[in-house]
Amino acid sequence: MSKRDFAIYALGSPTQVMESQHFELLVDMIVNAKRHLPAGKPFHLFGAGHPSLFSFLVALGCDLFDSAAYALYARTGRYITAEGTVLLEDMEEFPCPCEACRRGTPPEVRRLRPPERERLLSQHNLHACFSELRKIREEIRKGRLWDLLDLRAQAHPALRKCLNRIAHYSDLIERYTPIAKPRGIFYFGSSSDQRPELVRYRTRIRTSRPARSKYVLLLPGRWRRPYREDPRYRQVVDRAKDMEQLAVCFYTVPFGPVPLELDETYPVAQTESLDPMNIDIYRSRASLVRDFVRKLSPRGIFMVREGRYGGLVSREISKLLPASRIVSVPGKRLKPDRLLKLIQTKMA
């Protein structure tokens, strides 16, 4: 089909796959179709009518949908929301402010004649579909579609599986993700690790060839972006950045190693994050830091050790050089002047 110059290409119809909530299979179907079709042509998915899936489908490259689900659901008394479906008989209040929902409470709507009840539910269900599409377009404009996927995945285990399967193709999605976006990104822990911006950063750090440096200063990157603005280390960074043969690098939870030169680039300085206190995340990031420092081929390493993550980084760094060439200072006892004097003495 890719050899035929159609205005629109379509995948149809995976309705049974969606109805049985085999969303992992649906993701594979879409990805395999998209891989063989012209990237610039619109892609239509038949039978996609529930808004809880829309954001996932758009992230995979679906541009158009069609479905009678809004009316079919109304016929059986089902009320559609962006998070799922609710039976009208189980509701006491409508959470939606659309015109159809303002006409009465669920008990009042249940007492209506079937044709009128079906008409009101159809109107609301259609409103829910278009409302979700408007939200998706707005999130795309803000560069936060992945954040919406993460939010929607909380609504049902099947949707979480869907996002996990999408993450399996993160390398492919990364190719079509803008280098920079109007707004920063959020890091929530392991659920955010496969978002394309982080995949891109890790890939480029792994494949980078930084200039070698005789010494490396490793600082925690934890509470403020850009990391150099952390008041605990600002004095150290301001002095250290002008020292020849000394490379300054932060070890961070979202990104792993962040060289001072990348500290103000996107998305490093524009990422809001939390520390998930996850030992597996700490270990994976500590390995990234070790591999990056190895590329610098340093003669000596200075490190400010902070928390459990800092301990793991210190352990990995110890594999690179003899203990006599590594100076590790606990963050709680850090005195900037003393650290700077120690660095100058060792480098002299």
In total, how many domains does the architecture comprise? Answer: 2
Task: Report how far the terminal alpha carbons are from each other.
Answer: 68 Å
Number of helices: 14
Which architecture name of the largest domain does CATH use?
Alpha-Beta Barrel
Strand arrangement, major sheet: 9-8-7-11-12
- The radius of gyration computed from the alpha-carbon positions, rounded to a whole number of angstroms, is 26 Å
Order of helices and strands: EHHEHEHEEHHHHHEHEHEEEHEHEH
Question: Superfamily at the CATH H level of the largest domain?
Answer: Queuine tRNA-ribosyltransferase-like
Give me the count of strands.
12
Q: What is the approximate shape?
A: elongated
Instruction: Report the sheet-strand fraction.
Output: 15-25%
Largest sheet: 5 strands, mixed
Query: Approximately how much helix is present in the residues?
Result: 40-55%
Question: Could you name the CATH class of the largest domain?
Answer: Alpha Beta
Low-confidence stretches: none
- For this structure, the CATH topology of the largest domain is TIM Barrel
Can you offer a commentary on this structure?
A hairpin with a 2-residue loop joins strand 4 (78-81) and strand 5. It is elongated and about 90 Å long. The model has no long low-confidence stretch (mean pLDDT 93). It is an alpha/beta fold. The longest helix is centred in the middle third of the chain and has 29 residues, at 114-142. It has a five-stranded mixed sheet, sandwiched between helices. Helices cover 45% and strands 15% of the residues. The protein contains 14 helices and twelve strands. It has two domains: 9-168, TIM Barrel (Alpha-Beta Barrel); 212-347, Rossmann fold, CATH 3.40.50.10630.
